[in-house]
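Dear colleague,

As promised, here are the two records you asked about, laid out in our usual form so they can be pasted straight into your sheet.

NAME FIELD: protein one
SEQUENCE, THEN STRUCTURE:
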Amino acid sequence: MTKPPARVPQRSNARSNRERILATARRELGRNPDITLEELARASGVVRRTLFGHFPGREALLEALAEEASEALKAALPAGPEPAEPESADRAFVRFVLSMWTVGDRYRLLLALARRDLGVERVAEVLAPARRVATAILDRGQRDGVFHTQLPPAVLSAGLEALTIALLEELNTGELEDDGTHAAVAALIATGVPEKQARDVVDEIAGADDRFLNQQSGTAG
């Protein structure tokens, strides 16, 4: 008996449609959180039935975006334990900020949808690994005398997170052009590092970190 033809093209098309829907959702929800699934289908170039075949409702679509953002954030974080002699806290924090900037749109979208759609607890779960890394770096920097101690590390981390989100919003509106280096300088200054030192550290890290430069060129646009 002759075997039926493989359905690889259909599966390939399904994956392509799903990825296109998610990419469109990230972009359009960032502009208009109230956009309907029907409008998202049109913006994605698929029929309504195709979108609902992948995501039967808004909740399913947002959960897929949350999972996608979770994986992107975890991939951007440093892998493995710190070396026996870790680099200074200011340099480590700059690397962290630049890494987070590469996934900033997804990060910003999660926070924008936190209360009304995903729920604060789900968003906190997704962001927990990044927040732990930031708080640990800030804690070390305070103990080493690199950062100011006016605020506890977790509180300082929350404030710097809000600053980063505000800058990403300005990037989205076109008021700011930044590859992440301006945001890193601003964040470092907010930790208490003098401006000139902050600029020198960011220039050093951004200029020498090929991984960061390659990420930026790969995520442009």
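NAME FIELD: protein two
SEQUENCE, THEN STRUCTURE:
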Amino acid sequence: MKITLDLNCDLGESFGVYRLGQDEELLKLITSANIACGFHAGDPGTMRTTVKLALEQGVAIGAHPGLPDLIGFGRREMSMTPQEAYELMVYQIGALDGFVRAEGGVMQHVNAWSFI
């Protein structure tokens, strides 16, 4: 029996001029990454850069959508309908998937625990 371990990390949380985390260093150590999709953290440029770095390291890519709350890092309570929550998820997952496909990759998973 072969045992495998997936070492996973949330990445791509920088936005604008604000640099957060040590994504390049962590990508050398992990097997899968949850990349922020721009609502709770991240931005389009950070998403693209993180996707490219992950693919270069052979790291599996997943979307990490969140609430539209950069100031509160997606952790403040927000009231929305199930339809609104669904639309926010589809929007963010689609955005990251676009960057992944543009770089020739395939998205493996969605990490949506913080959205529930």
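A couple of things worth noting about protein two: The two ends are 35 Å apart (CA to CA). The beta strands are 8-11, 32-36, 60-64, 107-110.

Best,
R.
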